[in-house]
Every structure is written in structure tokens, then in C-alpha cells.
Design goal:
heterodimer; A: alpha+beta; Arc Repressor Mutant, subunit A; 5-stranded mixed beta sheet; 5 strands; B: 789 residues; alpha/beta; Alpha-Beta Plaits; Rossmann fold; 27 helices; 29% helix; globular; binds iron/sulfur cluster; binds FE2/S2 (inorganic) cluster
Amino acid sequence: MKFSDQLEQRFSTMVTHYPTKRSVLVPMLLYIQDEVGALTDEAIHEIAQRTELSDLEVRNVISYYSMLRTRPVGKYNFQVCTNVSCLLRGADDIFEHCKKKLGIGNKESTPDGLFLLEEVECIGACSWAPALMMNYEFHENLTPAKIDELIDGLKKKEEQ
Amino acid sequence: MADVTITVDGKKLTVPAGTLLIEACKSTGIEVPSFCYYPGLSLQGACRMCLVEVEKMPKLQTACTTPVAEGMVVTTESEKIKQARKAMLELVLANHPLDCPVCDAGGECELQDMTFKYGAAESKFMDLKNHRDEQQWSPVVYFDRPRCILCYRCIRVCGEGMDVWALGVQNRGTSSIIAPNKEDHLECEECGMCIDICPVGALTSGAYRYKTRPWEMKHVGTVCTHCGDGCKTTLGVRRADTGMEIVRGDNRDKSGINGDFLCIKGRYAFDFAHSGDRIQQPLIKHEGKFVAATWEQALDRIASRFKQVLASDGPTAVGIIGSNRTSNEENYLLQKFARLVLSTNNIDHHRTADFPAFASALAGKADATASMRDVFDAPAILLIGNNPTDQHPLLAWQIRTNVRLHRAKLYVVNSYPIKLRRQAAAFAQIAPGSEGSLVQFLAGNDAAADAAVTPQLSREALSQLREALKNEKDLVVIFGSELRGNDVTALINFGLAQGAKFICLGDYANSRGAADMGLYPDMLPGYAPVTSATSFHEDWVDEIPTSPGLNLLQMMDAAKEGKLKALYVVGSNPIARYNVDPFALSKAFVVVQDMFLTETASIADVVLPIANAYEKGGTFTNTCGDVQMLKKAGEFAGVRNDFECIVRIADRMGYDVHKLVPFGGGGTRADMGQSRGAQSGEADRHAVWLAERNLEPKMSPYDPTAMLDEIQRLVPGYDISRLGLLSGHDEHTQLVQITRATGSGHPELVLPSNDTLFTSGTLGRYSPTLNSVMERYAAKPADKEIAAD
Ligand code: SF4
Ligand code: SF4
Ligand code: SF4
Ligand code: FES
Ligand code: FES
């Protein structure tokens, strides 16, 4: 399997950064996921070959991290933190609100494939709790109104 | 390493620096509970059962990951520790199904034992348990996920120990699960190591699951009957209609040369013993069809026909083919029977290695053979030919473990990229069939390198290899049947110059024993030529025929030409193994002793149903020369062992069996009033030998230990510790006392079995487990089973 020139380029420089090949695995998985949309069987096999690991070992790593996934996700991936700090600041309500607004449950995507909703552990934004991560973007000090604004904005963008 | 002194529970003890606290405690008899810790595997620190208090350390420490330090003061039992362990157990039990009444591990489960000890049976969790049905991952391996306590032993033993890496862990934290390499099933070596190392009943075997309760079995430690490595295996047996049925094989007590290792054959391929194909009655061929007969009828027929042939055509018209899976006692008896009762040297067996060349090259050299134990701690190993991963699984395990734990240097020379190259410091892939040339090159013949080099393997690489090997002290040299005759001699001369020890690889459980016991037409036990004067000539009452007999292939030819009129085949299948035309034997009177109607048995005139090695006593010699005792575990109605049959046939032929088996009061000579030249009036040597060793004379001609007495007395190298043997230890024989070996091994007769991990000669074909595994791997891709997630 071939990746985009840019990613291939990245891979070849990154490999040289570490003492062992396997160390490049996690960052590569992230880049591949961004490029391919998910860590497909084919992608897993490819990266396993390149890092001299078994497919199983690559799967073990993928399943360890909640940000790595084997099935395609929504274009907008909502990861709502419900860990302690956020919880104390009303994360449960925020999560419930997201569910209602998007009409889907935890780890589900909207039929149009645009949104995916997921409850996650601490994302390191406790000081601005409650917080969520949309793809690589942080949204903090959330209120239901802020969420409506965010989602509506995205929907509108898509309609254009 | 320097020693350090620590105090454990008030006891002072001194252990080498670097020792893990858990091992230090064990050495003084204090057991620290553990789940994830397993000696010889990498540290995990996952289960927190081994928590102990160490003075000046703020929190409880895991004894399995803490190395001892000078002056450490440790407490292993206290109220605080007890509470901590109990709490850990409660967490482990939170999602445990507690289906102990039906669980395979019930009664021998580490979790049960701990729960019993710490009284953590009360559950504070009210949540529903997370259930998941049992999954079949392979013909051998089943997984019951809820029972898993996530100790990761299975993953480590499969990866680090077996170098298979077929198991992994997915997800994290409490939702972690053990997963097989092919998403919903396993593709692996099917060794069952993961199953037996599992402290609970999460991994279970197709062979044993739901069959019985551990306490309903009797456990017998004996020796595996498959390859030539000689693993100890503990067989669990249970009453069945046909006798005692073997229901389990393992080596959890870690006794023997193999520790807890067994391959699929030792662990599961005991099932041939209860195959429906077994013969249960003697069969006599009548008008082309087998008819069941009594033992009396069958033995009478055999004895009278043998006598007839001897009378009409003389001893050259009879021949014997022995076995690689019968005991030393049986092999020794069989060749003695050939030479004394039938007065013939027409005796041979399926040879899988050139042991005669090996013995003659080593003749008189002390301490030149390596034992299976040596492979585990030798600093350097040279492996030429063979593929131990398939053909000598224990040897491969010993090599891998040695490299992993002791950083041994492994040199592999092979014409294929065998799996052990992964552990090798240097791997030379030589041109196919050039093993001999390579050895000649090592021995100093530079020109011989031409044949071994390939475009990928340069002359320089070979020279470097030779130099590196010359600098290795205490090298163990292991070679396969690719090397024969002069090549063996050259290799041994090369190695001996630097004090190396050797292992010559033969294929079956007692291939080495068959060779050592003289199943050769031209050699007596101990590789002594039949033409020379030996202690056997002095000792045996009757004359040994002096001219060498026919070898296996010559016997087949002689039978075809009508010159060989009677053939006695004991536990061998020459028709299939040597691809002999069955019609070749149609004119001869053929007797076969076997468990099954093999290709050879089906053309026989008389077939005797025979016990296998799991159903009798005796000794086996593994390919390294380590001797071990067999113990009777299974039992199968209607069969007898080869030993008894041979003695009975001799008896019916009118031969005095005292001359064959030393039993009853004295030995073979004095009490029979024999007087013959130099030995007349001499004391009974056998009785003297027994008395010197505090051994009793045996009372029955059917007692194989009587034969063992004679073997130990007469066969060079076999005067090993009887006490050691009896206590289940392996005793290494030395070829040093052999001085007369001829070395005429007839390299062309060596026919490697080429068994894989899942085959075992003719025997393997009758094992349902091996068959199912082979079908599975032939029928790839496997059907979808229950998904792993
Ligand atoms: S049976 Fe052996 S090779 Fe297969 S998964 Fe278990 S340990 Fe690994
Ligand atoms: S399956 Fe058994 S050995 Fe493997 S992690 Fe679970 S409890 Fe441990
Ligand atoms: S390695 Fe050989 S002796 Fe050991 S269990 Fe396997 S077949 Fe039996
Ligand atoms: S708890 Fe939500 S970001 Fe840390
Ligand atoms: S045995 Fe020490 S943590 Fe498991």
C-alpha cells in the first residue's frame, strides 16, 4: 500500500528519529488515520510490515488508544470529556445535550456520516472544563448554547 | 554477581545481587502469592498479588519486580498486606464468573487457592457481570474470556518462549481482552503452552475440556513417544471401558529436561492410544483374510513357522526389523533374540541418523556428547542442518531459551531460512545439499567452500564464520541427518580440537536407543562389530553368528527373490516408510507386532496387538543420549507389550529363556551349569554385578528391568545411576567407553522422517488431534467462528 507522497516523505524521515523501527508506530498510525479516514486492515498490514511487527501487535496498540480507530468516523468527530473535572462542571448535561442535538448515542455517527459522538476520558483541558475535542480542535467552557452554535455552524458549512 | 544480605520475616538470608525479592523469598521457603509473575518470562507487575512491605519504602512493593538490595528488611505477611491482597482479589473476582463447578481448572486453579487463602469470596460489586461465550480459536485452543484474570502469562510464553507471538492484548484497563492473531482465530504452533500456563481456566484445550475433574485422574510421569528429544510428560489417566484412558498430558510439575515445555505432540497426541483403529486381538491370515485368534494360536503359529524355516532354509532365511519407538530393553532383547534364538544377524531398523559414524568418530573421547540440558546453558551453539522448530521442538525451545535468558551465541547453517535464524548471531544460508562441503570447509579444506557459497553468501562470510567458531569455548555442535559418514568425522574432528560437545539428531523417541542397542546387521549393542570379540561374545551363552547380516533393503530384496522366508517386524512400517512394493513380501511368512493395521501389518500372516510406550515400563534414550524411564500410564484391553511377545515366541520355539533374559536367582550363566573354556567355574557375573549395586535379581522373564540390568552391565556408556533413573531423572550416557565402533553406518540407508510439528511417522496418522490440526491448516482460510470481539 502506498500513501501520499507527503506521508511517505514523512515516514522516511520519521523512521530515522528513533533507535528502533517500532517506535514510529503511534505517530504514523495517527497520520495514516487522518489520510485514509480509518486504520483499515490493509493499512494495518502495511504499517506492520514497515515496522517489523505482527498485525496483531499493531491492533493491540490501536485498541489501546481511543483516538485510533479501525472503522471510518464522522467527518466531525466529537469527543466529549466526562472525566472528573468536567463532570463536576456539568459534563453529563453537555454530553446529553450533544446526544439530543445530533440524535445519536455514544460512539454512533449520524446517518450522513458527518458527525460522530463519543464520550472520552480526560483530554487535558481540566482548567477550562467542561471541554470537548472536535477533530484536533479544543472547545472549552462549554454550555449547551455553545454546542448548538458549533454544530449549527458546521452544518451550515456543509450545506454550502 | 556479589551477594547481598536481606531479612525476610525476621530470617536473614544471602542471595546474589539482582535476585528478585519473590525468588529470594522462595529460596527460604516463603511463598509470596503471584499471578502474573512466571519464572523465566519477562516481568509484568500486573496483578499486585505479590505486595510486600519493605522497610523505609512508603508503599507496598511488588516482590516480583523488586530486586533485592543490601540490608533490605521485608515483611511478607501482615494485616496490611492481607487487606491489600484481599482487595486485589475482589477486583479480580468482580467480573469472574465463578463457574468453578464446571471449569476445567476447578481444583487446581490458582485463583481458587488464593480466594480460599484470603477469604475474598464476598463480592461488593452489584453490577451485572460482563459475559461472553466461550470461543474456539483453533482445534487445540479454546478461550473463555470472563474467566481471564489478565495476567498476560499466555502472551509472554507464546511470544518470548515460543517465538510465535500469536496472542496479544486489546483495549486497556478493565476492558482489556486477550486476542488471537487472526482476529477470531489462531494460526500458531498449537503447542498448548498458553493453556497450561494459564493460572485459571480461561484457556482450555480441545483435548481435555469438560472431560473430567482433576482429582478423578491418576497422574503418571513418563516420556513422550514422538520425537527424539525425550520430553517428560505427566499423563492423567482415568478408568474407561477399554482399560485406563489417557485424558491429559502436561508437564506442570516442570520435572525432566523439558521443564514445562511440551509441543503439540507431547501434550495432545497421546490420543492415538485410544483410537478406534487399534487392534485388540491377535490376527491370523486365513485365505487372504484376517481371522481373530487366541494368543496361544498366534504364538504357536509364529514359533512353529520360524522353526520350520530355520530347519529348512537356515538362519539366513529369517530377518527382523525393529522399531524406533520400542524401549531399549525390547530392542536389546530383540537383537539378542535374532542372534541367539534365530542365529542370524539379519536385523535392522528404520535409520534416521548416522549414529554409527557418530559413535566411531567419538570413540574413546571422554565427555564429548552434550545432553539436552547442556543446550539450555551452553555459551555457544552451532546448528548444522535440520529444522528443530519442526523436528525437534524441545531442542528448539532449549536453544531459544538459552539465547533469551543467557545470551548464548547461536550459529545456524542451513540451506533453508529456518525459524531459529531469528535467534542466531550468525546465519549462513548455504547452497542446498552442501552441508557436507561446509563441514569440510570448517575442517580446513578451503576449496570445499565453492559448493556452499551462493550469490547471497560469500566466501568471506564463511571464513568469518569459521574464525568465529574457532574462538568459541564450550561450543555445543548439533547436526542433522544431512551429515553422514565422513562428514560427521570431519565435523567432530573440527569441534574436538576446541573441546566442543556434540549432538547427532535422530528423529524418533527411541531412534538413538535402537542404534545403541544394536538393531544393525553388522553391529552389536554399543556399535561393536559382530565380527570382533566383544563382552557380548564372552557373556552370552550361545554363539553369535559372525558374518554380518542383511540390512533392511537387502532383506526386502531377498524376500522378493524368495530367499528370505520369514520376516519378523516389531513396531515398524517399512512398506510405507521405505516405499517397498507389498508384493515383495508376499512369499515370506510375515509377523507384525503393532497397534494398528498399518501398510505392513495388513500384508502380514500373523499380527499381534501391542501396547505402546505409554502402556509399559522400560527406558528410552533420546537423541542426545539421555536415558529416561517409561512408566505405565494407559492400559488397553487385549494387548501385550513387545517384550513379553518376544520372550514367549522364544519360549515356544523351545529356547531356554534364561539365556535370553537374566531372571530368577542367578544370572545367565552360573546356575545353568555351563562350562566353556575360559569361563568355566567362574562366578555368575550378572549376580555379582547386581550385588555390587544392591540390586535384586528379577523374578520374571517378562520383567524388562531384568534386561535393563544386563544392558547396564554390558552396553558401553549405559552404566548410569539406576537411582537417578528410578527417581525420574534423565541420565546422560557417554560414548567414551565405545572403542570398537566400526563407523560403517551405511549412510545411504539413513532416511530422515521429515516430520513436521504436526506429523509423527505412522503413529501420527492415528492421532485425531494431529489430524484435525493438519486439516485445519490445509483448509485455510478457516470458516468464521465466534468473533473475538
Ligand atoms: S498454542 Fe502455543 S503457539 Fe498457539 S497461541 Fe498458545 S502458546 Fe502460542
Ligand atoms: S488467558 Fe489465562 S494466562 Fe492469559 S491473561 Fe488470561 S488468565 Fe492470564
Ligand atoms: S518436543 Fe518431542 S519429545 Fe517433546 S513433546 Fe514434542 S514430540 Fe514429544
Ligand atoms: S476531566 Fe475533562 S479535560 Fe480533564
Ligand atoms: S506477581 Fe507481582 S504483580 Fe503480579
